[in-house]
Specification:
This protein has about 575 residues and is α+β, with helices and mostly antiparallel strands. It is built from 18 helices and 22 strands.
Length: about 575
């Protein structure tokens, strides 16, 4: 067995200490996918950057998406053709650059008439915000043809096809017999969005040794022209940025206020989701998503997400990201929509294993229909002002799928302002464990065999790690502390204690919730029981040096979060 050498931690305190009090090129506030994507891009250009988040990397809105990487089919009817073009391109690029966590998703869209909705679609294109949302087979056919057209750049998936009622019901007998046709097209899904955000930050740190990142960091505000912040250990630090990026998502206006710049840029909407333990539904879905119109005209979706049925999403105006959760009426709405679409299957609350909700950081709008607020992005600039020597660029709106393109646009603005030239494009740059990922089954088998031989792990275990972490699995397979890979987490045996040990030591885990909710998929799959949580707390306390009081505090806070915000029964 080969023992792989450990490299110094990318999140070492020495990086932050070296920046304290000094000038840096860019400070990024908020480590969601937009902030992390921009951090990676700027670090790749050789800039010195610092990214901070008050929570964990990817812990806010970026942890609450529908877990799709998609072109935005519905944006065609609002005439946002540029957004669809960019989104489909970025989807295709992510399938290549992050194959360890982004994969194709065949999608079924049912039609309940042939001609309905054409007039409404034309009114929407003309700016109506009250038109009915019904979409018939003809409209779906036109939309899917346009979608294929916009997705032709770097195409990696088949074109759409339309099937009549008889064939549709033969293929998916669980569907309501009231359908007239179904369209089949291809988008993509992301298995572990929170981990991809972490990988973007790690890639940036590898590219720029002078840059740094910190989670659980509190922004204190301006201090004699410097930006002051408090780290997780209570230490105060400051930096003097030449440019500051506000990537705080739904907290953008709060962050600007703390920097002495009052704004009203965000008017968010709430999106909630539930996950069901429903084997029969997954069997009939057979790897496909159903993207359907609920009885009230809103769009819903259901697909297999890591062995659970993910159902979403609502679109409700809301503005408090710190207390958002999936409410009872939203759960009732999801279950009723599923019963109407799939009358042959039973749905009830006992099948729910996890719920989540987030605030989309959309631009402030007075639109009466939240679903028609643009999902496009913008980056308004506030030039230096009294007591502030640096401009603030706020990242407003955007979609998960378009984070790389958004980052590239803002990075070019930053480089221009700093008088620097772009060194490298991120368009074809692999992310994290997508680097050197095996291109086909033969290459995958060879990779697994090689790492199994090096590490001494069984080939099937290496394959499991490769599916979960991409090529980062090689370092995890070679990690050895006092644990062996045979030591499995009781109650969730597909995770080993050796694997968790690696995560705790090298992935900037500050709190038990970081491990449970983002570094692993234990929570979202509904696998966190009280004994599992206790065992995780024990292991985290041992590795991170928590005393008994800190262990108990972390345990209590994580349990309360799971129960209050995620509908988990412990």
């Amino acid at each position: 067995m080969t023992s792989f050498p450990e490299t110094p931690s990318l999140f070492a305190d020495a990086r932050l200490n070296a920046l304290d009090g000094g000038e840096i090129d860019v400070l990024i506030l908020g480590a969601g996918v937009n902030g992390a994507g921009l951090f990676r891009d700027l670090c790749e250009q050789g800039l010195t950057c610092l990214i901070l988040d008050k929570g964990d990397f990817g812990s806010g809105t970026s942890a609450a998406p529908s877990r799709l990487i998609h072109g935005g089919l519905k944006y065609l009817e609002t005439g946002e053709f540029g957004l669809v073009a960019q989104s489909t391109l970025e989807r295709n690029l992510l399938l290549r650059n992050a194959p360890h966590c982004v994969e194709p998703l065949p999608t079924i869209i049912p039609a309940f008439s042939w001609t309905k909705g054409i007039g409404a679609a034309l009114r929407t294109l003309m700016g109506s915000t009250t038109a009915p949302r019904s979409r018939g087979g003809v409209l779906i056919k036109i939309g899917l043809a346009l979608y294929d057209f916009y997705g032709s750049r770097h195409r990696v998936m088949p074109r759409h096809r339309l099937s009549g009622r008889a064939k549709s019901l033969r293929d998916m007998p669980m569907l309501t017999p009231s359908i007239k046709a179904t369209g089949l097209y291809y988008d993509a899904k992301i298995a572990r969005p929170e981990r991809l955000v972490l990988e973007l930050v790690q890639d940036g740190l590898r590219a720029s040794p002078r840059s740094a990142a910190a989670n659980s960091a509190e922004l204190l505000g301006l201090d004699e022209g410097a930006v002051a912040f408090r780290l997780a250990d209570g230490a105060n630090r400051s930096v003097r940025p030449r440019i500051t990026i506000n990537a705080a998502g739904p907290w953008i206006d709060h962050v600007n206020a703390r920097l002495g710049a009052e704004t009203k840029l965000i008017g968010g909407t709430k999106g909630s989701h539930i996950l069901l333990d429903h084997p029969e539904l997954l069997r009939q879905l057979n790897g496909r998503m159903i993207y359907f119109e609920a009885d009230d005209g809103r769009i819903c979706l259901v697909f297999d997400y890591l062995g659970r049925a993910l159902v979403g999403s609502t679109d409700i105006k809301a503005n408090n990201p710190d207390s958002v959760r999936c409410e009872d009426d939203e759960i009732d709405y999801f279950l009723a929509s599923l019963r109407s679409l799939l009358p042959g299957l039973s749905f009830d609350r006992n099948q729910i294993v996890y719920t989540y909700s987030g605030i989309r950081p959309l631009p402030a709008s007075d639109a009466s229909n939240p679903g028609l607020i643009s999902r496009d992005h913008s980056a308004p600039v506030m030039e230096p002002g009294a007591g502030r020597s640096f401009p603030i660029i706020s990242l407003v709106g955007g979609k998960w799928t378009t984070f790389r393109g958004f980052a590239e646009e803002v990075a070019d603005t930053v480089l221009s302002r700093l008088g620097r030239a772009r060194k490298i494009s991120t368009q074809h740059l692999p992310i994290g464990g997508g680097r050197d990922f095996p291109a086909d089954e033969a290459a995958r088998a060879a990779w697994i065999a090689r790492v199994a031989s090096e590490s001494g792990l069984a080939a099937d275990r290496v394959g499991e790690l490769l599916s979960r972490y991409g090529t980062t699995a090689r370092a995890i397979a070679g990690h050895r502390g006092r644990w062996t890979d045979a030591d499995r987490l009781p109650g969730a045996e597909h995770y080993s204690l050796s694997e968790l040990d690696y995560i705790l030591r090298w992935e900037a885990v500050r709190h038990l919730g970081d491990l449970v909710l983002r570094r692993t998929t234990l929570a979202v799959r509904g696998e966190v029981t009280r004994p599992v949580l206790e065992r995780l707390a024990d292991h985290a306390a041992e590795v991170l040096g928590w005393d008994p009081a800190r262990r108990e505090r972390e345990l209590t806070q994580t349990a309360e979060s799971l129960v209050t915000y995620h509908g988990v029964t412990l």
